[in-house]
């Protein structure tokens, strides 16, 4: 068995901390995701956390078989208590070397375990930035998490069949810009985005 590619712990703890700082008044605020207010973004983070936890465990069912775009996500009343626990479970699930092996499923898509792990980390890094930027918080992911997200997004941007990016057209960023800015640009977002 291979060793886990990256430890999710630092990034899941960071996302949990960012979410903890969100005020009730901020739940309706705009985010860099055009169709999502903060509450929808947090609902999406809850859903992807469960889906990729179960993908790591290869525990297939509604959580792994549902297209994330099939409905508008929103937070449940108990999201503040539930999200940190779910993020801990996600990190723990991806510490098992078996999570990175063979095939799995997330968002109704079958994909290799190693690819699912990379996508899960990218989702946490990019949506962590979305949440921090929307709520005026500082954001400094660990280098390993950033590098994992950058690797996935850079490969997708170079794929001639991918349309220029995994989540939308790439925003050009200077090659000497900070790694976080390059990740955000590759995700189709403007690193300079600020709430209106």
UniProtKB/TrEMBL annotation:
<dbReference type="InterPro" id="IPR034660">
    <property type="entry name" value="DinB/YfiT-like"/>
</dbReference>
<dbReference type="InterPro" id="IPR017517">
    <property type="entry name" value="Maleyloyr_isom"/>
</dbReference>
<dbReference type="Pfam" id="PF11716">
    <property type="entry name" value="MDMPI_N"/>
</dbReference>
<dbReference type="InterPro" id="IPR024344">
    <property type="entry name" value="MDMPI_metal-binding"/>
</dbReference>
<dbReference type="GO" id="GO:0046872">
    <property type="term" value="F:metal ion binding"/>
</dbReference>
<dbReference type="InterPro" id="IPR017520">
    <property type="entry name" value="CHP03086"/>
</dbReference>
<protein>
    <submittedName>
        <fullName>TIGR03086 family protein</fullName>
    </submittedName>
</protein>
<feature type="domain" description="Mycothiol-dependent maleylpyruvate isomerase metal-binding">
    <location>
        <begin position="12"/>
        <end position="132"/>
    </location>
</feature>
């Amino acid at each position: 068995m291979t060793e886990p590619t990256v430890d999710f712990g630092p990034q899941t703890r960071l996302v949990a901390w960012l979410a903890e700082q969100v005020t009730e008044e901020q739940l309706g605020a705009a985010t860099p995701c055009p169709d999502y207010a903060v509450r929808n973004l947090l609902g999406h983070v809850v859903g992807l956390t469960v889906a990729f936890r179960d993908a790591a465990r290869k525990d297939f069912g509604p959580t792994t078989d549902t297209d994330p775009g099939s409905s508008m996500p929103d937070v449940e009343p108990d999201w503040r208590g539930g999200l940190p626990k779910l993020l801990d479970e996600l990190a723990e699930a991806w510490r098992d070397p078996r999570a990175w092996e063979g095939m799995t499923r997330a968002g109704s898509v079958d994909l290799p375990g190693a690819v699912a792990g990379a996508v899960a980390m990218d989702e946490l890094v990019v949506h962590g930035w979305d949440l921090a930027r929307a709520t005026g918080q500082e954001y400094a992911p660990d280098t390993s998490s950033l590098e994992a997200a950058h690797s996935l997004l850079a490969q997708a941007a170079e794929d001639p069949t991918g349309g220029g990016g995994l989540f939308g057209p790439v925003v050009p960023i200077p090659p000497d810009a900070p790694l976080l800015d390059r990740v955000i640009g590759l995700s189709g977002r403007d690193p300079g985005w600020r709430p209106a």
